[in-house]
Amino acid sequence: MKKGNDKSEIRKIGVLLEHVDSKVDLLIEGHKTLDKKIDKVDARVESFKKEVDYKFEIVFDELHLIRNEPKE
After folding, report:
1. What string of DSSP letters covers 16-29?
2. 10: how many CB neighbours lie within 10 A of its CB?
3. How far apart, in whole angstroms, are the C-alpha atoms of residue 33 and residue 48?
C-alpha cells in the first residue's frame, strides 16, 4: 500500500508544480508588459523634457535681450 501512496503524493506534487509554473509564467508575462509600458512612458518623458528645455532656452534668450536693451 505504501507504493500507491507514494505515486499519489508524486502526482500531487507534479500538479502543484504545474500550477506554480503557470503562475510564474503569468508573472513573467505581466512583467514584460509593464516593462514595455515603462519604456513608452520613459520615451514620452524624455521628449517632454527636450521640449521644455528648448522652451526655457528661448525664454532665457528673451530675458537676456530684455536685460541688455538700452533703457529709454
Report:
1. HHHHHHHHHHHHHH
2. 10
3. 23
Q: What is the pLDDT of residue 71?
A: 66
Model's pTM, two decimal places?
Answer: 0.59
Set of cell numbers at residue 50: 527636450
CA distances from 70 to 34, 49, 63, 64 (A): 56, 34, 13, 12
Residue 71: all three cell numbers together? 533703457
Residue 9 CA from chain centroid, whole number? 41
Q: Which three cell numbers stand for residue 46?
A: 524624455
CB atoms < 10 A from the CB of 41, how many?
10
25: pLDDT strictly greater than 90: yes
Radius of gyration of the chain (CA): 31
- C-alpha 17/C-alpha 26 separation (Å) is 14
